[in-house]
Amino acid sequence: MSPRIQLAYYVLWLAHPTLQVAVAGVMLWRKLHRKFPVFFSYIISQIVIFCVVFPVYRLGNYTWFFYVYWIGTAIGVVLGFKVIHEIFLDVFRPYHTLKDLGTVLFKWAGLVMLLVAIVVAASSPAAQKWPLIQATLTTQKCVRVIQLGLVLFLLVFSRYLGVSKRQDSFGIALGFGGFAGIELGCIALFTGHYLSEVTLNLVNMGTYNCAILVWLTYVVAKSPARENAANLLRPQRWEQSLIEIQHPDNKDSLIPMFEGMVDRALSRTKGMTYSVRTEMPLDPACTMTTADLNYPFIPPSSVSK
Question: Does residue 200 share a domain with residue 113?
């Protein structure tokens, strides 16, 4: 790298912990670390990783830098995935059934990502020497896709869920999603040989600084309260539908109601006897009396004369 590019590289890299310290300080001041403990842990972990990786890089020990860098990347991927789950739980906090469903889906998503990473690491020819690195890269791409999908989900369904675009959870998701989208696009361009490795690193570092600035802006600003308007009836219907699926109400079922009606009708029929009035006109040739006309009832026209 030229001295000018190397200077820009160091400036962008040193800006990471500086902005992250500001985000962590504001979160402690506003007690947001209690509301978003996983995101706060992610910020602190990134500061600690920088404090370890940067000195090793300056010492020029490539072997130590290699291992420290990829260990830090793996930690960031795991915590980044857990941050997505934390944001999802905060968005669906008023809807317990939807929140439980989301927890199950995230567990399955984590399992699928792990299986995909293992398969790619085992089948890729480039990963024969370093399979764990290939697995980490694959998992990182999966997490970036989920982060981008989370932002798109919030942009589409925020008004149905009562989530304002000025809330903290939306800002955290926006920072992750924006960085994930640009990083995935740069990786695609780099794979197609449209982007150099130096440009890729500079763009990613600059974009990550923008993401931290977004987080800092949201944690400094006061988050508005959630909406309780009538447009929240739709998620409430989703919640009620899931509750009815998990705990069906037998009282509202038509089959037991019809079965009860049939049972009552049969019980009345078995205990019923048919009587005939004494003034009922009978066939003069019939030898039966009115006292004999009990159930089962035989019509007069069918009695033999």
Answer: yes
CA 272 to chain centre: 61
Q: Identify whether residues 90 and 201 lie together within a single domain.
A: yes
Task: Report d(CA 177, CA 80) in Å as an integer.
Answer: 11
Judge whether residue 303 has pLDDT over 80: no
> How many CB atoms are closer than 10 A to CB 280?
10
Q: How many CA atoms lie within 13 A of 67 on its CB side?
A: 3
Pair of tokens at residue 164: 């304002």
Q: Tell me which of 211, 231, 246 is where a domain ends.
A: 246
DSSP 276: -
Tokens standing for residue 203:
């763009």
Q: What is the CATH number of the domain that holds 128?
A: 1.20.1070
Single out the residue of 202, 198, 217 nearest to residue 15, CA to CA: 202
Per-residue pLDDT tens digits for 155-207: 777 666 667 788 888 899 999 999 999 998 998 898 888 888 889 999 999 99
Higher pLDDT, 93 or 254: 93
User: CA distances (Å), 261 to each of 180, 254, 272, in order?
Assistant: 61, 11, 17
Of how many residues is the chain composed?
Answer: 305
Residue 254 burial by Cβ neighbours in a 10 Å radius (0-12, 13-18, 19+)? exposed
Residue that has been written with the tokens 């978003």 in this structure: 36
Ordered DSSP codes for 99-117: HHHHHHHHHHHHHHHHHHH
